[in-house]
Amino acid sequence: MPLVRIDALGAGPSRLDALGRAVHEALVEALGIPADDHFQILVGHDGTNSTLRYGSYLGVRRDDGIVYVAITMRSGRTSVQKQALYRRIAELAHAYAGTEPRNVFVTVTENESADWSLGHGVAQYLDASGT
User: Fold this and answer.
1) DSSP per-residue letters across 4-44
2) By C-alpha distance, which of 65, 72, 107 is closest to 86?
3) Alpha-carbon span 76 to 111, nearest angstrom
4) In degrees to the nearest 10, what's the CA dihedral of 76, 37, 81, 41?
């Protein structure tokens, strides 16, 4: 159950939708996330009222096409799976939204089953014993 937040500079509804599709499809392909497990927060920044900052850290020349993708999910994926996810997000963001792969910045934050309530005030991932 990943929760995805995508922040993009200069992105309107169609670009945000394309980026959301790219990330969701990459999660399904690379990590086997169920197709209906689709929870996203999509935010476009206009550069005036809200903006994104970026640098060229580690020699990556980012520009105003920057897209930040923050994924929160339960722990358990390998480094190899995460690398495949990052690669696929960059590929699909380029194919669907025209975002240069160098401008796709992804972070993954992992947590445990007890850290999720998917509605009704219940921690659905916990088994009956509460663990």
Assistant:
1) EEEEEET--HHHHHHHHHHHHHHHHHHH---TT--EEEEEE
2) 107
3) 9
4) -100
Backbone angles phi, psi at 44, to 5 degrees: -100, 140
Provide the terminal-to-terminal Cα distance of the chain, rounded to the nearest Å: 17
In this prediction, residue 1 carries a pLDDT of 82
- Active-site residues, by number, are 2
Task: List the chain domain ranges.
Answer: 54-114
Instruction: With beta carbons less than 8 A apart as the criterion, state whether 66 and 106 touch.
Output: no
Residue 128 is encoded by which pair of tokens?
């009956």
Torsions phi, psi of 90, nearest 5? Answer: -60, -40
What's the mean pLDDT in 122-131? 75
Q: Tens digits of per-residue pLDDT, 7-43?
A: 999 999 999 999 999 999 999 999 999 999 999 999 9
Domain 54-114 maps to which CATH number in 3.40.50.720, 2.60.34.10, 3.40.50.620, 3.30.429.10?
A: 3.30.429.10
pTM: 0.93
Q: What is the mean pLDDT of residues 78-89?
A: 98
